[in-house]
Amino acid sequence: MKRIYFDHSATTQVDPRVAEVVREYLLDKFGNPSSFHSFGRETREALENARMQVAELLNCSPDELHFTSGGTEADNLALIGYSLKNRAHGDHIVIGSIEHPAVLKSAVELENRGFKVSRVAANRYGEITPDAVSAAIEDSTILVSVMHVNNEIGTVNDVGAIGAVCCKRGVTFHTDAVQSYGKVTIDVRAMNIDMASVSSHKIYGPKGIGALYVRNGIEVQPLTFGGHQEAGIRVGTENLPGIVGLGEAAAICKAEMENEAEKLIALRQLLHQRITDELENVSLNGHPSKRLPGNLNLTFHGVEGEALLMALDLEGIAVSSGSACSSGSKDPSHVLSSIGLSDEEAHSTLRMTLGRENTIEDIERAAAVIINKVRSLREMAGIHTEIQSA
Ligand SMILES: *Cc1c(COP(=O)(O)O)cnc(C)c1O
């Protein structure tokens, strides 16, 4: 049985073209970029080439880009590193209420260190509106952090409009772009974005590598201590195989993003159509059109989401309930609760995130299995209710 992977927002398979490049920097080109000999010079060159590839997809200058161990560390550095460095200017920060835990927990850490945090509520589509951000900004606000694309429901925020608000109010604007980078157009200049986090393993690159863009003129306090790498912002010998992998992954996205988005929107719509043609009481979470191309987040009313997830897994179909980080916990997803779902509805919700290697055949088989499993789980639930009320 061919397995079908519909969990690309959790992680992706490394693109074979990326793996080829990574292999070269594991086996042949292993020098330390800080060394002066030829081994060092060739990896230094590769490091700077990758920096350019990653920067191009953000429209920032390569010297504004600092490699980190991933999206989490980039978010930590943006929130904690920036706030600690700029404390003299104010002690208030604004974040969206449905951010990734890497941002949410950085904000809690800042509260523990005496900062004040406002959390802006999302509307029913999961959008954080520029007006709501504007209303939350105070005289003492030094930083706003709002994600570009939500990892669970796929809603795309208008970060350009939020950036304009922050620019006008003189507040630094960070966006967690981990889910949008390489999939949705992002231009830090046009959108007035001062800091942005990206991660390699969400764009078919290796795990454990990411980057933080920090606009020239913005200062961030390092959270690592040692050498002089990455402009002193993130020190320690560079993860060269990871970095060249991220660079190659970014270059592929730049070349293929437009076609890939078109393909994924069509596959997502087909999957959605097949399911709703056959099943009643299925609702879409997130924005109907302003969403990540490959994200389909559905509530199957009356069905236990975990049971459905396991039934699909037995058929080789991988989906997720809520977010990857919160599966394993019984609490309903904070994102789904925030956009107005009841606990029961949140527990009846699955996230299906399509990606590069998915085909129409995958969609057709998955749709048939999902329809079948939802029907039988609903039947069993019905029988169960009848027995209980008899
Ligand atoms: C995956 C993800 C992260 C964390 O990135 P890692 O590279 O896994 O540390 C942060 N934010 C969002 C929105 C994500 O989806």
Counting structural domains, the number is: 2
Percentage of β-strand residues: 5-15%
CATH topology of the largest domain: Aspartate Aminotransferase, domain 2
Second rung of CATH, namely the architecture of the largest domain? 3-Layer(aba) Sandwich
Sheet/helix structural class? alpha/beta
What are the secondary-structure elements, in order, as H or E?
EHHEHEHEHEHEEEHEEHEHHEH
Uncertain stretches = none
Helicity range: 40-55%
Radius of gyration of CA atoms, rounded to a whole number = 22 Å
What would your notes on this structure say?
It contains eleven helices and twelve strands. It is α/β, with parallel strands linked by helices and 390 residues long. The protein has two domains: 4-10 and 256-389, Aspartate Aminotransferase, domain 1 (Alpha-Beta Complex), CATH 3.90.1150.10; 16-252, Type I PLP-dependent aspartate aminotransferase-like (Major domain) (Aspartate Aminotransferase, domain 2). Helix 2 (38-56) runs parallel beside helix 7 and helix 7 packs across helix 11. The mean pLDDT is 96. The structure holds pyridoxal-5'-phosphate. Pyridoxal-5'-phosphate is lined by residues 70-72, 75, 100, 102, 147, 151, 176, 178-179, 199, 201-202, 210.
